[in-house]
Design a protein that fits this description.
Layout: H1 3-17, E1 19-21, H2 22-29, H3 33-45, E2 49-52, E3 55-58, H4 68-73, H5 76-87, E4 95-98, H6 102-105, E5 117-120, H7 123-131, E6 135-138, E7 142-144, E8 149-151, H8 153-159, E9 164-170, E10 173-175, E11 179-182, H9 185-196, E12 198-204, E13 216-219, E14 225-228, E15 243-246
Parallel strand pairs: 4-5, 4-9, 5-6, 9-12, 12-14, 14-15
Antiparallel strand pairs: 1-3, 2-3, 7-8, 10-11, 11-13
Length: 248
């Protein structure tokens, strides 16, 4: 069996059970102990699992959320590619929601159709939309300083005034078992409401977001369409359960 096939199998088993023993992998894959040890080390280096005595467990760490500045510089070229592709999905007179993610921000330089209307909870997004003379609405509410996002009950009440043809969301973590998650329950609630009020929803996620779990659930994995920069081998098990679009 090829290395990529073993890695897919290991990740699939982890998504099913959360923990797996090395002896079970050796038996089921027909591989040597050294091969399995090397596979687990490689997957751990990518942040896809955590090695434990006698095996591995799902990497479901709930670390501190990155600041807006930290998110902006992380995987910037990948985010730009994803944003460019997502912008091609827009149609004339679309009414869309852009949440305050740094990847959704990368859509705005590629928005050329001024017939669209954009609703956002992102301060930076609203400013850039104004610079480009695009009709935009900024929802009110509490300003979350670390991510420059409007959140909380007032923001949710404001968002309930609108319906969208398409919603574009950022996401911190994607996992087949635990779904789409984010560190902040208030941001999760905003994303849930935006999904409910849209005909189509797209999550914009570079390859650092996959096979991870955060604190607050947004939705099930199969509820939305994903746009990513590459459909790598770590994403293959997901393809049977949802739609994943690949940015060129």
């Amino acid at each position: 069996m090829l290395t990529d096939e073993r890695h897919q199998y290991i990740l699939r088993r982890l998504n099913e059970s959360g923990v797996i023993k090395s002896v079970d992998l050796i038996e089921s894959l027909g591989s040597s102990e050294s091969t399995i040890r090397r596979d687990l080390a490689q997957l751990e280096s990518k942040g896809l699992l955590l090695r434990i005595h006698g095996g591995a467990k799902l990497n479901a760490t709930f670390g501190a959320e990155l600041t807006y500045q930290e998110k902006t510089i992380k995987n910037s070229q990948q985010k730009k590619n994803i944003g460019r592709y997502a912008a091609t999905l827009l149609e004339e007179n679309d009414v869309i929601y852009l949440d305050a993610g740094t990847t959704t921000l990368e859509m705005i330089p590629f928005l050329t159709d001024t017939s669209i209307t954009v609703v956002t909870n992102g301060i930076a997004h609203a400013s850039m939309l104004a610079d480009r003379q695009i009709n935009a609405y900024l929802v009110g509410g509490k300003l979350k300083h670390s991510t420059k996002a409007m959140v909380g009950a007032p923001s949710q009440r404001s968002l309930m005034n609108y319906q969208f043809t398409k919603t574009f969301l950022g996401v911190d973590s994607i996992d087949m078992t635990y779904g789409c998650t984010t560190p902040d329950p208030e941001e999760a609630s905003m994303k849930q409401l935006a999904i409910e009020r849209a005909s189509d929803t797209y999550f914009l996620a570079d390859d650092s977001k996959w096979n991870k779990v955060s604190f607050a659930k947004i939705c099930d994995f199969s509820d939305v369409t994903f746009i990513t920069d590459k459909i790598s081998t770590i994403h293959q098990p997901y393809l049977n359960h949802t739609t994943i679009l690949e940015a060129d």
